[in-house]
Structure formats: C-alpha cells, structure tokens
Amino acid sequence: MALPVIVKSTKKGIHLVLSSEVSFEELLCKIREKFTESKDFFQNADFAISFSGRVLNTEEECAIVDVVSESCGANIVCILEENDLLDDYISEKLQQIHDEKLMKSGQFFKGNVQSGETLESDSSVIVMGSVLSGGKVISKGNIIVLGSLCGYAFAGASGNSSAFICALDFASENIRIADAVYKNTKVSLGGFRKKKKASSQVAVAKDNRIMIEPLTKGYLNSI
C-alpha cells in the first residue's frame, strides 16, 4: 500500500499527495503526525496548500487545513485548485523546454514586447514576458510566450509548417504559422468583445489551417 500522506514542496506552498486506500479519519491522524514532526520548520510560515490522489469535499479540505495549522502553527493562506496546479506545471515545463532544448538553438528575450516593437529571430524564441497588443514576434522556429500573447505572432517564417505558438495566456487574434493564417474578426453585438478567461493554449498548423488547442501536459511532454 502506498504511503497515506506524501508532502511535497512547490513554488506556491505545500502539496499533499493523499492515499485513497485509508479512511479519512486515519488520513487526518497521519497528516497530524507528519506536520507535528516538522513543527520547527513550518511554525509561523505562510503558504498555500493543494491536494491530489484523493477526491475531497469542501468539509474535508477544511478539516485538513485545520489539522495542519494546529499541528505546526502554520498559516494556510489558501487552497490551490487543479487549474492552479496545471498552470504551475505548464510554466515549469516551458522553462524546462527552454533550458534543455532551446538554450543552444533558440533566442531568449526577457521583458515585454511593446506596441510598435518587432522581435525577429532566425531560430525559436521564448519571451519571458508578454507580447502586448500592437507588438510583433516573428520567428523561423517556434514561439513560446511565458505571459500574455495579445499581439501578432508569426512562427515558421521560413516555411516550417511544423512550428508552433504557445502562451500561458493566449489572447491573440492574429497569428501565422508558415503559410497558414488565423485572424479572428468576430465581435459581439454592440461592437464589444467579451473578455475571455486567461488560458494556456497552443497553435499548430494542420492542412494549411491553424488550430488553437488547450496546452495540456500530454502536449508538453510530446515536444
């Protein structure tokens, strides 16, 4: 049987991997033991907490938070949901792609690409920031934006139709991959666009058409 509780450290706090093979009462006891043993480390610390491995209702999540706080004197500032964890994973994975794959062959740009600015690259490019509306990124390889993509992005500028464009917040309505062009000109009644919730997405070219899809763990692992 797997360990009832595994404690992992994340950038935003603590992640608990919980076994579904024990009763909830036994689980609480194991959590209490874990954090009592680590009291000196966690006491008076402020951090977020997240869970996986077991389906919890709101009452059970609150009970775990109470046990953790009482056992080690920590202040749990919030409970992270699954979408928050996925965003963290995507951000870390994109950084890993940069470190392992693009350091030698790609360009690394820190900061925002402002309106009126154009960033061009003969290789893949990672933007450690956002591409603002009116800004342009043109690359012969892939384009990865670790922020919001609101401006124009042109990947595979040399004709590479296997290039892709991805961003943690994909808000651009004017992108191009090789010869495939995507331009969304739809507006709602009254000429106003409804603001979309920020989402991590990837654009790829298929049959000379651009497809925009959710940026999932599976896709990142296939890059």
How would you characterize the overall build of this protein?
There is one protein chain. The two termini are 34 Å apart. 27% of the residues lie in helices and 35% in strands. The protein contains 5 helices and 15 strands. InterPro entries: CAP/MinC_C, MinC, MinC_C_sf, MinC_N_1, Septum_form_inhib_MinC_C. Keywords: Cell cycle, Cell division, Septation.
Q: Supply the CATH class of the largest domain.
A: Mainly Beta
pLDDT averaged residue by residue: 81
Low-confidence runs: 186-197
Helical residue percent band: 25-40%
The CATH architecture category of the largest domain equals 3 Solenoid
The succession of helices and strands, N to C, reads: EEHHEHEHEEEEEEEEEEEH
What's the story with the biggest beta sheet? 6 strands, mixed
Biggest sheet, strands in spatial order? 5-7-9-11-14-15
Got a strand count?
15
Whole-number radius of gyration? 22 Å
How many structurally independent domains?
A: 2
What labels would you give this structure?
223 residues, alpha/beta, six-stranded mixed sheet, Pectate Lyase C-like, 2 domains
What's the quick description here?
The protein has two domains: 5-80, 2-Layer Sandwich (Transcription Regulator spoIIAA), CATH 3.30.750.50; 84-222, Pectate Lyase C-like.
Give the SSE map.
Elements: E1 5-9, E2 13-18, H1 24-37, H2 39-42, E3 46-52, H3 58-72, E4 75-79, H4 82-102, E5 107-110, E6 118-121, E7 125-128, E8 136-139, E9 143-149, E10 152-155, E11 164-170, E12 174-177, E13 180-183, E14 201-206, E15 209-214, H5 217-222
Parallel strand pairs: 2-3, 3-4, 5-7, 6-8, 7-9, 8-10, 9-11, 10-12
Antiparallel strand pairs: 1-2, 11-14, 12-13, 14-15
Organism: Brotonthovivens ammoniilytica
Subunit structure: Interacts with MinD and FtsZ.
Domain Septum formation inhibitor MinC C-terminal: 109-212
